[in-house]
C-alpha cells in the first residue's frame, strides 16, 4: 500500500506546530502542541501522535526548528562536544582574532564572544599551500600524529582541519583527515574545504568549527527522533528544512548541520512566497509573530531574499544581528529581521521607571501568567487578554485565566507606573507594535523598498492580532491573513522544494579567466548537485540549476553575486550594474576579480493541491464582546473563521477566532475572504 501522508512540523520556542496533508482525501489537518525545550523529540512525537494514529502511512516528515542555536549552546539536554582544531603554525588564534569588528563601538567594556575552541585545543602544524595551490612546505605528519594520539587518548572525538588556501588545494586537509581516521577510527572529522571551499580563512574556519560542534549533537537528536518514529512504524523519509528555505534528506543535513540552524523562521518565508505567487502579489512582507519572537521578511516576485553569511549566537539590536557579536557561518539563509516581541515576551520596568519589553520570554514553560502554569511575569499575551482581544480558549485547548493576567500586570506594571490595568495593557501592546514595525522597516525601507507598495502577510499564533495596527504604522497597502495562520510555517514545509548549494573557488582577475575554465567548474558542481538530488528521489526533469559567479573589484573584501550568462565580458558588465544598484556607484575603470563559482540546485516537489473553499451564505457573528481598540472600548462582533466562505466581507470592529490564531479587524477596516480562504484586509 502506497504512503499517502505528508507532514510538516515546526518546533518553535513556545509551540510545536504540525500540518498534515492526506493525498487520498485531499485534506489538510493541523495541530499545535507545547514545545518541550529540554527534550524536543518528545514534542515532535506528541504532535505526530496527536494528528495520526497510523504513522506507517507517512510518506515524508519535513522538520524545521528554531532550536538550532539552543542545540549549539547546549540548551536542549545534549552537551556540546569538545573539539580540536588543527591549522597552520601561526594561525591557531584565527578564530579568536576574527575580523576585528567591534560590535559595540562606544562600549569600553565590550567583550568579543569566547572562542568556541579553547587555546589548549588549537594546534598549529608546519606545512603550507600558497594562494595558487602549490605546496611550498611539506606537511608535518609526525606532529599531526602526536596531536591526534594525545587528544584521542584524552577522549576527544571531534576534529576540525582548516589550512590556508585549502579551497585551492585541499591535499593537506585530506591527508590530515586520513591520518586522524587511522589513529582514531570512531572520530568525527570536519575539513574546511568540504563545508566552505572559499577564500577568507576566518570565515571558513569558523564555519567548519560550528559544523563540527553541531554534527554530533544533530546526529544524536535525529537518531533519537528516527528511532522513536520507527518504533511507531514510521517508514517514510525524514527531511530537514535549511536556513536557505530548501529541504534536504536527513543524511545530507548531517553533513553540514550549520545550514539548518535558522530553519524554523525560513519555513514561514517560503509559505509567504508560495501564497504570494498563487495570489499574484508581486511584493510581499512576511510578518511572523509567534510565542517567543517576531520575524519579518521580504518576498519579491515569489522569491525570498537570500544572504550568504549568518552569525550564530550574535546579539540582535533593533531587529538586526550585530556584526562581530557572534560566530560567522557561511551558508545561504533567508534574510530575516527578528525582534523579541512574541506573545510570551515579558514586560518589565527598568531602573529609570520606563516600560520595556523583552528580550526574555516566558516561553512554553511556564508561559504567560494567564496560562496558569506558574508564570508570574506579565506578557504581551496577558495584555491582549485583558483588552478583550483573545478568546478564553487558546490553541491546544489551553484555557486562559484572566485573573492571573490581571494580577501580573497590576503588580509589575500598573502599580509601578501609577496607571490602571487597561492603560498598562494598552501600553504593552503599543510598544510591541512599535518594535515589530521596526523589524518590517528593516526588510523594506532599509533595503530600498517602499512599504506602501507591499502586501503584509501576517501569521503565527499572534501575528493576525497585531497585523492591521502594524501595517497601518508602516503604510502597507493591505494585509493578508492566510489559511491556517497559526501553523503557517509548518504549512510552508509542505510546499518547499529541495535545495543544495555548491561552490568552487576561482580567485582570479576577470582578464585572466577563460570561459572554458568557468564552464568546467559549473559542470563539476552541477554533476554533484544532480547526483545528490536524484539520490533524494527527485526526477531529473524536476531539477532546476542556477549559475552564479561571486565577483568584486580588485582589492575589495566582499563580493556580489552575479548571474552567469555564458560570457566573461557580460559577467563584468553585469557586476558593474549590480554594484551601481546596490551601492549607488560603480567603477568600470577598476579591475574585477572573480572569486567563486556557485550553483544553486532546486529539486521541484509536488505541492498539496489547495482546494478553493466552497461558497457559503452570509456569515453571522456568533456573539459580541467589548474589545479595546485605539479609540477605546468598542462592542465587537465575534466570528468563527471556519464559517467564513469566499466573498464574505466583515467590517470592524470585529474579532475572527480559530483554533490556532485570532484575527483583529479594528474600526475603519474591512476584511474579505478570497477563494483560498485568506482574509484580505483593507481600510474602508
What is the compact description of this entry?
This protein has 684 residues and is α+β, with helices and mostly antiparallel strands. It has six domains: 5-75 and 219-237, ATPase, nucleotide binding domain (Nucleotidyltransferase, domain 5, 2-Layer Sandwich), CATH 3.30.420.40; 83-215, no CATH class; 263-341 and 442-492, 2-Layer Sandwich (Nucleotidyltransferase, domain 5), CATH 3.30.420; 345-431, no CATH class; 498-603, Dna Ligase, domain 1, CATH 3.30.1490; 623-683, no CATH class. It has 16 helices and 39 strands.
Shape: globular
If you average the pLDDT, what whole number results? 90
Unreliable residue runs: none
Helix content: 25-40%
Note down, in words, how this protein is organized.
The protein starts with a strand and ends with a strand. The strands form eleven sheets. Strands 13, 14, 15, 22, 27, 28, 35, 38 and 39 form a nine-stranded mixed β-sheet that branches. A six-stranded mixed β-sheet has the order 3-2-1-4-11-12, sandwiched between helices. The protein has a four-stranded parallel β-sheet with strand order 6-5-9-10, sandwiched between helices. It is α+β, with helices and mostly antiparallel strands. Helices cover 30% and strands 29% of the residues. The mean pLDDT is 90. It folds into six domains: 5-75 and 219-237, ATPase, nucleotide binding domain (Nucleotidyltransferase, domain 5); 83-215, no CATH class; 263-341 and 442-492, Nucleotidyltransferase, domain 5; 345-431, no CATH class; 498-603, Dna Ligase, domain 1; 623-683, no CATH class. The chain is globular, with a radius of gyration of 26 Å. It has 16 helices and 39 strands. A hairpin with a 3-residue loop joins strand 25 and strand 26.
